[in-house]
Write a structure and sequence with these properties.
This protein is mainly beta and 270 residues long. The protein has two helices and 18 strands. The protein folds into two domains: 114 residues, Sandwich (Immunoglobulin-like); 98 residues, Sandwich (Immunoglobulin-like). Strands 7-13-12-9-10 form a five-stranded mixed beta sheet, with no helix packed on it. It starts with 15 loop residues before the first helix and ends with a strand.
């Protein structure tokens, strides 16, 4: 019978040393990176340097032109009403579409625009939003990217905090919070104006938080006053934005540490 002349490409047996080397290489190429990935830490965000440092102030007032629509009475139940009374809040409670006092307009977001991102100032604490009397307080607020937003429940009942961001990268969150529970914390990484916080249990409960990439912002008081501090002398663009009365952009110049700008926003036609 003729001999098989086909070459024997695979030996019938491997030396022990060859197998050991093979499995050692396999471990290095496959298992090693997996183990390294399990223990690795995420890359920290780049450090933002402060490029605008000063002691100048932009101040002024926002007033409202026109007659705002009548605010609606909130449908508080007995427990919510009792919580209002316990906190010294007047009843009945009403919506806050337009907050006005002496002709001024509250809840206007005032921001310096067209400037590079700035770090959170040293010593800045969290933005605190209270749930009290089945309302979010404050109704309109602002903070910086990466700053903690702390939400408390001061009511004797359960709420849920449901955030509804629209900016890509800001994640929706929906968490329940019982009475006297510890505060819930939220952090957002992308700038977004009027990011909504709501309670699905009490559908009239909203708070609007603007997340900004610098600290040069303010929210007007009930009489329309505002103040933005910490800017060097120079020319700036300032945006005034209200959820219903629209927005305006004004150019201002800080000289000798001071600038004043007054703005009129208008109730839109029905």
């Amino acid at each position: 019978m003729p001999k098989n002349t086909e070459p024997n490409c695979l030996p019938r047996s491997r030396p022990k040393q060859t197998l050991t080397a093979f499995f050692s290489l396999l471990s290095t190429l496959v298992i090693g990176p997996l183990l390294a990935g399990c223990g690795s830490k995420p890359t920290p965000p780049p450090v933002i340097e402060a490029t605008l440092v000063g002691s100048g102030t932009i101040g002024g007032r926002v007033t409202l032109e026109g007659t705002p629509p009548e605010e609606q009475k909130l449908p508080l139940d007995a427990t919510c009403s009792a919580s209002c009374e316990a906190h010294g809040d007047e009843l009945p409670r009403f919506t806050r579409t337009y907050v006005t006092k002496d002709g001024g307009l509250g809840d206007v977001l005032v921001t310096v625009i067209d400037i590079p991102p700035q770090p959170i100032p040293a010593g800045t604490g969290p933005l605190t939003i209270d749930q009290r009397g089945c309302e979010y307080r404050p109704y309109v607020a602002a903070c910086q990217v990466g700053q903690t937003i702390k939400v408390t429940n001061l009511d004797p009942l359960t709420h849920n905090i449901h955030t509804l961001p629209e900016a890509p990268g800001n994640k929706e969150v929906n968490k329940s919070q019982a009475a006297e529970a510890k505060p819930l914390e939220f952090v957002y990484d992308k700038p977004e104006e009027f990011l909504r916080f709501k309670c699905d249990v009490h559908p009239w409960m909203f708070s609007y938080v603007s997340v900004l990439n610098h600290p040069f912002y303010a929210v007007t008081s009930e009489d329309g006053q505002f103040e933005i501090k910490g800017l060097p002398d120079g020319k700036y663009k300032v945006k005034f934005k209200h959820r219903k009365a629209g927005e305006k952009i004004e150019e201002v110049e800080i000289k000798d540490g001071q600038a004043t700008v007054d703005v009129v926003l208008t109730v839109p036609a029905a």
